[in-house]
Design the sequence.
């Protein structure tokens, strides 16, 4: 399984330097981040370029990602959906999970992503 030395930043609006401002994590000062803005870009990037060295997740990828009025479906997929896809991808390809960080400002979404990925890493 090909692993690139690049970093993948999943966020619909922010840039890595902005995440540094509130996380104070120096990794966000690096210049080799590849930015993806949504679920489809996230999947495409990994399928085309392989697993990155590290992924930083945002949870809320669009203002309207919650419930569509009159429906029981999400309009937009979240960072949690990306994390679930990543786990499936790693299992299907017998690949190790890349390093990860969750820079999301949504505390519940952040906890869900971290819990999913940490539990998978334990396997």
Sequence:
């Amino acid at each position: 399984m090909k692993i690139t030395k690049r970093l993948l930043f999943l966020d619909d609006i922010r840039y890595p330097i902005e995440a540094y401002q509130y996380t104070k994590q120096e990794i966000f000062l690096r210049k080799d981040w590849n930015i993806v803005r949504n679920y489809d870009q996230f999947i495409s990037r990994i399928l085309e370029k392989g697993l990155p060295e590290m992924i930083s997740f945002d949870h809320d990828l669009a203002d309207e990602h919650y419930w569509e009025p009159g429906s029981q479906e999400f309009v937009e997929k979240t960072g949690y959906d990306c994390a679930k896809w990543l786990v499936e991808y790693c299992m299907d390809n017998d690949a190790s999970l890349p390093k990860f960080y969750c820079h999301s400002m949504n505390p519940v979404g952040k906890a869900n992503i971290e819990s999913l990925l940490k539990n998978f890493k334990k396997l």
Summary: The radius of gyration is 14 Å. The mean pLDDT is 91.
